[in-house]
Design a protein that fits this description.
alpha/beta; three-stranded parallel sheet; two-stranded antiparallel sheet; 5 strands; about 35% helix
Amino acid sequence: MSAGDVSDTGKMVSTAFLDLEPYGQSGFDIARKLISINPNVNIIFLAGHSEYAMDALDLFCSGYIVKPLTREKIQSQMAHLRFPLKESYLIGKPLQRA
């Protein structure tokens, strides 16, 4: 996904997991675009280290996960979303709240 693709799907997104170091475009650019379309979107950033954590907080993100990504880390972040969801699914199964 790129920032250009967001306008087509941004209003439907309630929670987005964005890699901060994807190929091409920064996850921060995509986050800004999503937030401009849907101010109540939950953004959870993924990174290989904590270097960008303060920048992520400046965007009022819902979470920040340092890789490796695990089910436990996802569940923890989903349990503490800035804008809670009524239902959450992970790989087609209801997500248990932590």
